[in-house]
């Protein structure tokens, strides 16, 4: 008689048990993030872009990872590889033929890389415990890296006066240069057809979240999280919701008692299972959860 045991974890297994099971253990600290970056860069098609990316990853990523570990506090624990994966996903959205020519200039590539680096490492910082993590990150980033200049005046950098101070998070890229998010804001005109409790007054923060969601929703799976009662619970990308033939939209309220297992089961309720695969029902290609 032969028995096959399938275990959920090997946390309490001895080295002898692991070796007899034919399991090869690789510590994430030993593997590191560099193999992922090398594989991602190899999939890029422009040779000159590859050379620039190798330089920028070596220049920006190690100091940022060290700073995130020793200096800053995030809303949730984030592994080093998650920072790097987010950075690569954002770079895929920006390093396109429309934004960069076939022979991209070093300065232009670095401009997009810095913007993606700021949001990949700084978007998860804690800003609700009396210490503005984004402000501290901005001051550190501006003092650490000086190749790309943000349009922050000398009297405001480094920033010291909290919400009134401009930071690296207050700018976005358009037509190959930085502009403040306030440039996107228009005078608010309330609609008589929308009730007061359903009215959302746009702010710089909502524009930032909307911008990133519209950027990533085009084909990169992403999960948005933050502190309770934050804007992520009421914002949905309008471009995605307008494409009714492509996106299936479902909204679900989360509570403090929800675990990862209950959230997964709730999300899978709207999917069709065919064998071992889950797919979006009907003609839609994507499922958008809020």
Report on the architecture of this protein.
It is a single chain. Helix 3 (34-42) packs antiparallel against helix 4 (47-70), helix 4 (47-70) packs parallel to helix 6 (106-122) and helix 5 (80-94) packs across helix 6. The chain has helices at residues 15-20, 28-31, 34-42, 47-70, 80-94, 106-122, 133-144, 204-216, 238-242, 260-268; strands at 171-174, 177-180, 247-250, 272-274, 277-279, 286-289. The protein has 290 residues and is mainly alpha-helical. The longest helix has 24 residues, at 47-70. The protein starts with 14 loop residues before the first helix and ends with a strand. The strands form 3 sheets. It has a two-stranded antiparallel sheet. The chain has a two-stranded parallel sheet with strand order 3-6. A two-stranded antiparallel ribbon has the order 4-5. Mean pLDDT is 77; it is low at 154-163. A hairpin with a 2-residue loop joins strand 4 and strand 5.
């Amino acid at each position: 008689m032969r028995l096959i045991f399938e275990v959920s974890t090997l946390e309490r297994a001895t080295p002898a048990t692991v070796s007899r099971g034919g399991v090869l253990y690789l510590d994430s600290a030993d593997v590191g993030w560099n193999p992922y970056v090398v594989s991602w860069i190899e999939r890029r098609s422009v040779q000159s872009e590859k050379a620039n990316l190798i330089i920028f990853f070596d220049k920006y990523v190690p100091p940022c990872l060290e700073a995130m570990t020793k200096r800053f506090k995030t809303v949730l624990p984030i592994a080093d590889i998650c920072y790097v994966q987010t950075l690569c996903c954002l770079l895929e959205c920006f390093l396109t033929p429309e934004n960069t020519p076939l022979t991209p200039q070093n300065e232009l590539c670095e401009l997009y890389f810095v913007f993606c680096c700021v949001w990949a490492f700084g978007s998860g910082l804690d800003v609700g415990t009396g210490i503005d993590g984004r402000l501290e990150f901005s001051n550190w980033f501006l003092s650490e890296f000086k190749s790309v200049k943000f349009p922050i005046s000398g009297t405001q950098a480094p920033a010291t006066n909290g919400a009134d101070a401009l930071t690296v998070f207050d700018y976005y890229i358009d037509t190959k240069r930085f502009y403040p998010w306030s440039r996107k804001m228009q005078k608010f005109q309330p609609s008589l057809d929308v009730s007061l409790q359903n009215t959302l007054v746009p702010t710089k923060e909502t524009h930032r979240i909307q911008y990133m969601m519209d950027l990533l929703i085009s084909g990169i799976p992403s999960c948005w999280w933050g502190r309770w009662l934050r804007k992520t619970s009421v914002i949905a990308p309008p471009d995605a919701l307008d494409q009714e033939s492509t996106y299936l939209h479902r909204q679900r309220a989360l509570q403090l008692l929800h675990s990862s297992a209950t959230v997964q089961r709730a999300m899978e309720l709207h999917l069709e299972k065919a064998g071992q695969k889950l797919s979006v029902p009907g003609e839609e290609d994507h499922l958008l959860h809020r």
